[in-house]
Design brief:
24% of the residues are buried. The chain is globular and about 45 Å long. 68% of the residues lie in helices and 0% in strands. With 152 residues, the chain is mainly alpha-helical.
């Protein structure tokens, strides 16, 4: 895969603003582990290798287990995720696949059971941000980091 464009070189001020928006979301008060799961799940759906590499590594550094990372794509079939995580993951999928789901009421009803109104906004903006990063990285063919230290 060949990169098409470096968006930070092409539009540095706008990209810095987008980066700052994302950094502010990290200080929103939502659980770090939950935020990483949301970012990974959206990135799985969108096929963003750069974001998957970054956020799975970050999740591991923050103590996430390999098992939960491996099973994230099948979270509905696994008992490893809390009701709050399930509500967040369902909302992530609903908004990431908005053209298909139209954010159904049953998914939102579960979200309301687990998240305050303010947390719903924070989570929704987090989903907006990761979907934006996925589109920037996939669209411009951003490569992901490669850890060569584990190669034989």
């Amino acid at each position: 895969m060949t990169a098409r464009l470096d968006p930070f070189a092409a539009a540095p001020a706008l990209m810095q603003g987008w980066l700052d928006f994302g950094k502010n979301l990290l200080k929103s008060g939502l659980e770090e582990s939950l935020m990483e799961l949301v970012k990974i799940r959206a990135s799985q759906i969108n096929g963003c290798a750069a974001c998957l590499r970054m956020h799975t590594a970050a999740a591991r550094q923050k103590g996430e287990t390999e098992e939960r990372l491996y099973l994230l794509d099948a979270w509905r079939e696994s008992p490893l995720y809390t009701p709050r995580e399930r509500a967040a993951l369902a909302w992530t999928e609903a908004l990431t696949l908005l053209h298909e789901t139209h954010a159904p009421d049953d998914v939102y009803d579960e979200l309301k059971k687990q998240f305050t109104a303010e947390e719903q906004v924070k989570l929704t903006l987090l989903i907006v941000a990761i979907n934006g990063w996925n589109r920037v990285n996939v669209g411009f063919r951003t490569g992901h980091a490669i850890d060569r230290s584990k190669e034989a």
